[in-house]
């Protein structure tokens, strides 16, 4: 695969990862806005073009408020891959992500990253990191992670984001995410999973109100130096 395409895919996953994590100041948000403006120069569709423009209107405080309402509030959206498969956190999807990590030199640093390996943001960061390594190495761990885990839940995750009554920032974010996932499937020759008849496992579990995530932390503080070549704070040898 063309190295420029690999690099661009990695950059996109970094961009998608940031809004999944909680921050107390706007330093990393400013860096994320730089990525937004870079990626918006070549949107994947007209819908993505409009979505980028809407995201660029948000300041850190507006973003933080919506992030809390959509991801971390009482009507929060499940953020672990396992929940979409089994209606609970810390299931088989986590083991599959760990299997991918074992093929790489990286491991989750449990002291710095309190989320499970199948946390959505963690998966995005893992994809970005694996792709950066694949820029110089033909070992396609990212293909395995995408096809065996991310591809299986990302559509339903996107639907929940789009349907959330407080979503504005995250509606635009999801439009970009969906366009990018479509591109990923085309590049990797991976089909979207079939939609279930009736309620999915995740929806059935969500209807057993109130939904309370069993993820280790209510709000995740991710220590991320910058959008660097290796995510040193989340993984360790």
From TrEMBL:
Record InterPro entries: DMSO/NO3_reduct_chaperone (IPR020945), TorD-like_sf (IPR036411)
Pfam families: Nitrate_red_del
Domain of life: Bacteria
Gene3D superfamilies the record matches: TorD-like
Protein name: Formate dehydrogenase-specific chaperone
Protein's organism: Campylobacter concisus
